[in-house]
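Worked example

This section walks through a single chain of length 414. The input is the sequence exactly as stored; nothing has been trimmed or padded.
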Amino acid sequence: MGLLLSCLQTHKKSFTTKGKSRRKSPGRRKFIELRTLPHEESFDIPGDILVEILPRLPVKSLLKFRCVSKSWLCLISCPQFIKTHSRVSMENSKWSGHRVIFACSYPQYGLKQYSVHSLLREQSLTDAFHIYYPIKYAPNHAWLGSSNGLICIFEDVKDLILWNPSTRKSKKLPRIGTNLKIYRHIVAYGFGFDEYKDDYNVVLIVRLFEEERGYKYSLRTDSWKRVGDLEDTGIALSNSINFASGKIHWSTSPETSSGFMWEIICLDLESGVCGRLDQPDYGGSDIALTLGMLGGCLCILCYEIDTHVDVWVLKEYGVKGSWTKLFRFPCIHRGGRLVFLKPLCMLPNGEILLIFGTSLVLCNPAYGSFRVREATNFDMVEIYVETLVSPAVLNEECIDISLERELCDKLENM
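Given that input, the structure is written out below as tokens.
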């Protein structure tokens, strides 16, 4: 970033000082205004340098740099630039753009966020700062998940909202017809990115009249449609839907089963074909299972009651033999009862960030140790990466500026 600022300072004609010239006095600041650069002057910085530097800058800086010139505005708003910036941010080994966001309702409602770095450095989390929220407090709202910087909010059992906390942009999704009863019969939901279609999807599983129906929203078309034949899929055991390899997955128990059975249902969002996913050989009988995501892969937490938890990860989708037992740690009990954990992410240092009841816990698989962080008594928690992805549109085109087009072409090769 220092190189970029030094390059900007070479445009001496583009800076003006507010007010008349006066002698400096102690404590007086010199306020500088950056004018919009004429198009012919705005790219004195070589394009090769721009495409190397800009995608590595934080969102806050990029939002400011849109004011440098029309060309910079167009470049930073270019879909290819946004994709490149998102990829660079997610691949950053230091996780400098990753944030943890949580909502608390006691003693008063508030929404806070802090960096993942604060978890790793044992830094106090009491300095987490409040952030803008696109809705007023509603007792019946939930977060359906996050993907590429977007968070999906389910508000008051009737409205769905896509929200980018980094840019403060949000979008209320159209409803599924006019029958609001649909929203009161949702048994599972999820939000994710379809990399094959370059589209963001919200999926709802609804149980009406003893029948389960699937509905998929597409951000690209801004519309809903029915998906899949969900007959004989069983009773949903969790309200969480997990996205992987263009399919959605949730755990169920067959209604016709005489005893308890645990299955993973998978639904192809494109073809509508529904099936069951093979599971690993857990090697036990008295077990409890939960489905989740870890490191971009499907994972299963297998609880050997009262002893330990095994974490299985599907490293190669569709291959049963690729289920790998990643690690094992002891069960956690509270008040004499087993506490089920939900994995949020695997941190750069190998630790696993878990939701433990209403607390955040860091688990170190190598040593079997746990660290409880100060973020406690929250209602919801989610992890996201700061990006420029817009919740409003996916088909925006750039202004036709030849140099900006040339730079976007270079971005595709990064």
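What to look for: Residues 5-43, 396-403 have pLDDT under 50 and may be disordered.
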